[in-house]
Amino acid sequence: MSEGSTGSGTGQTRWLWDARLQQDIEEIQTRVRAMGEQVERALKTSLEAVLERSRPKAYSVIVRDQRIDRLEKDIDHLCLEFLLRQQPAGRHLRFAYATIKINAELERIGDYAESVARQVLKVADLQELPAPDKFREIGQVAISMLRSAVDAFLRQDAELARRTMVIEDHVDRLRGELNEVLLGAEREGRLPFPALTPLLTIARRYERVSDQAKNICEETLYMCTGEYWKHQGPGGAVRILFVDATHGVRSRMAAAIGRNLEVEGLQFLSAGLEPQPLEEPWRSWMESRGMVEATSPPQSAPELLSRHNIAVVVALEPAARSIFPTPPTPTVAMEWTVPDPQHWIAQGLGPEAAAEQLFQMLRLQVQDLAHALAGE
Q: What are phi and psi of 312, to 5 degrees?
C-alpha cells in the first residue's frame, strides 16, 4: 500500500511538472506571437507612410515603438524565469535559447520600422515617389517573410523555416533593382539629391527585415533540429569578403571601411576576379585617408575562397556573382548595387567627388552588415 501510494505521488508530481512546463512554454509563445503582431503592424504602417508620404502614420510608428520595447523586456523576463524554474534540457533548453535570440531579432525589426518612419519625415514633401510599386513590393515581401518566420517558430515547423529562408535572395534582388531606379532618378534630375539617402535607407531597412527574418528561421531550425551553422574561421574571426572584377576601388574601400569600424570578431577582406594593382586617382584618394588597402597586393577572389573559411561574400558588381559558392553551403552570398565611380565621372563629377560619393554609399551598407553580424 505504501509503495503504491509513493508511486502514485511520484506520477502526480511528474504530471504537475509537465503541465507547468507546457503552461510556461505556451505563455512565452503567446507573448512572442503578440510581439510578432506588433512588429508586423509597425512595418505595415511604415510602408503605408512611405507610399503616401504620410507624416501622421510615420509619427504613429515612432510613438508606438515603446510598446515593442516593453514586450521585449517582458519576454526576456519570462525566459529567465523559465530557465530558473524549469532548468530545461534538450529541446526545451533550445526553445528558451531560440526565444531569447528571436525576441532580440523582433525588437530590431521594430527599430527598422521606426527608422523607416523617420526617413519618411525627411521626404514627406516629395510630390512623387519614384518606383512606388517597387517600394510596395519589397515591403510586402519582407513583411510576408517575417510573418512566415514567426509562424515557423510558433509551430516549431522546420520545413516552413527552410522554405521561408530562401525568400531573402528575392528581397536582396528587389533592393538592388530599387537602388538602380533611385540612383538613375537622381542622376536624371527627377529626384532631389537630399531625398536620395532617405529613400535608399528605406529600401535598405526592408532588406534588413528579410535578413532578420532569415535569422529567426535559423534559430527555429536550431530549436527543432539542434543543428547550428557557424561561419567562423580560426580564432573565431568571422570573415567577410568583398569582390569586384579587378580588386579595384570598390572592394578595397569596402574592406577599409569595415576594418576602420573595429568591430571585434570581424575580419574584412577584398579581392577581384582578375586582380590588378589599384589605379589612380583612387589609390591617392584612399592613401590620403589612411586606407592601407590602397597599396595592398592584388588578391584573387577564387584563391581566397579556397584558402579561407569565408562567412559572407559580397559581390559589388554582377560579374562577381560568378564566385558565389554552390549551395548547400554555410557561406552567405549577397550582391550590392554599387556603381563604378568612373560612371559618376562620366556624368560630370570630379574624381574627389566621385570617390566621396562611393565612400558614403559603401559606408552605410558596410556598417549595417557589420552590426548585423556582431548582433548589435
A: -135, 130
d(CA 312, CA 240): 5
Q: What is the pLDDT of residue 376?
A: 45
Fold of the domain spanning 15-228: Methane Monooxygenase Hydroxylase; Chain G, domain 1 (1.20.58)
**Positions in the chain whose pLDDT score sits under 50:** 1-6, 229-235, 376
Other beta carbons within 10 angstroms of residue 64's beta carbon come to 17
Question: C-alpha cell of 154?
Answer: 510558433
Its pTM stands at: 0.63
Domain ranges of the chain: 15-228, 238-374
Position of cell 580588386? 247
Rg (CA), the chain: 24
Determine the topology of domain 238-374 in CATH.
Rossmann fold (3.40.50)
Question: Quick one: pLDDT at residue 137?
Answer: 96
Q: Where are the beta strands (DSSP E) in the chain?
A: 238-244, 266-272, 312-315, 332-335
